[in-house]
User: Which sequence fits this backbone?
């Protein structure tokens, strides 16, 4: 099938016929998208990708015929095409992101799924975001290289991090290189519910930090990381010289719950000059105003640069309004954090 140059061409890959029939119907209802085919296995997918060169691939990494993850690894090791993976709750999704997939969506199990469902609206949004990605997400930080900080154990500092598209790998890269002697870290990653808990568990097992999904009443402490639940906002509350986390339901802010702005604004209000905000890759502008509030309240701010962002949206929005004090490549962010912490302690 010859692609329409005025439309965003999408190839669907998977052997779940009922799901992909509904997906094809939903995508065709969007006039800006063109479904160029449904490949039922990795061999058909490879042939269609080489022949039609789709702008985005949507791939089920848990095909009954198998090989979804290996297909992605082989494909993305040879050349790049933005891939949005769909799958059930499991480690395979995170392995696909590690292999170079741009984004993911939790595959619904509802047999009556229809083309007008909220799931497909979200999938279409992810496809359009993926089309903006020009190169394979990288893991630029060597896992074996760890910064030595010599930071004091008692500190009233707090680090807050926000990310969206491409953020799971970016967050992993930062935490992998940071010494666990840094102050407590609170993170908002735009991620579906349940996946947030799995992501926290994965970070806990693969880094030297103690990482968990945040619960109301948790305290940030040295060597700990608290990740926002995928369906609730989090904010910080100062109690003495410590910071307690509150999780709560609320309206979406900047189209998201959890919202980076909610976390950042609470850090600015509760920690003032003791706050360090880091805004990583992601689509949209969530976190930009909160990062500016941190800077105006005397805190330090870091934004990921264009060259290393999967999508240079959120950090660009922050940079454009003057919220970013230090713009940095992803691989240098851990060094910048340690440098700021040492400067502030002197």
Assistant:
């Amino acid at each position: 099938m010859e692609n329409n140059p005025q439309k965003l061409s999408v190839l669907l890959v998977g052997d779940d016929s009922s799901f992909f029939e509904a997906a094809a119907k939903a995508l065709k209802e969007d006039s800006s998208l063109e479904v160029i085919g449904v490949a039922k296995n990795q061999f058909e997918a490879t042939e269609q990708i080489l022949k039609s060169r789709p702008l985005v691939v949507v791939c089920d990494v848990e095909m009954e015929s198998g090989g979804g993850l290996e297909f992605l690894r082989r494909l993305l090791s040879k050349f790049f095409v933005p891939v949005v993976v769909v799958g059930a709750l499991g480690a395979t999704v995170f392995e696909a992101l590690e292999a170079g997939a741009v984004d993911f969506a939790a595959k619904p199990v509802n047999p009556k799924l229809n083309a007008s469902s909220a799931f497909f609206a979200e999938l279409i949004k992810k496809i359009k975001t993926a089309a903006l990605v020009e190169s394979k997400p990288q893991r630029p930080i060597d896992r074996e290289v760890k910064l030595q900080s010599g930071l004091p154990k008692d500190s009233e500092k707090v680090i807050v991090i926000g990310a969206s598209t491409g953020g799971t790998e970016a967050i992993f890269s930062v935490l992998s290189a940071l010494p666990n002697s840094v102050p407590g870290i609170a993170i908002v990653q735009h991620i579906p519910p349940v996946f947030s808990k799995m992501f926290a568990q994965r970070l806990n097992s693969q880094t030297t930090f103690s990482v968990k999904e945040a619960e109301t009443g948790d305290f940030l402490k040295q060597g700990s990381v608290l990740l926002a639940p995928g369906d609730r906002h989090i904010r910080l509350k100062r109690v003495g010289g410590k910071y307690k986390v509150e999780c709560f339901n609320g309206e979406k802010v900047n189209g998201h719950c959890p919202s980076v702005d909610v976390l950042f604004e609470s850090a600015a209000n509760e920690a003032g000059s003791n706050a360090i905000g880091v805004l990583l890759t992601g689509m949209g502008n969530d976190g930009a105003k909160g990062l500016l509030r941190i800077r105006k309240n005397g805190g330090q701010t870091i934004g990921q640069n264009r060259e290393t962002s999967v999508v240079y949206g959120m950090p660009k929005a922050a940079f454009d309004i003057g919220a970013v004090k230090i713009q940095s490549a992803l691989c240098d962010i851990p060094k910048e954090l340690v440098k700021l912490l040492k400067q502030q302690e002197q």
Q: What stands out?
A: The radius of gyration is 20 Å. The chain is about 35% helix and 20% strand.
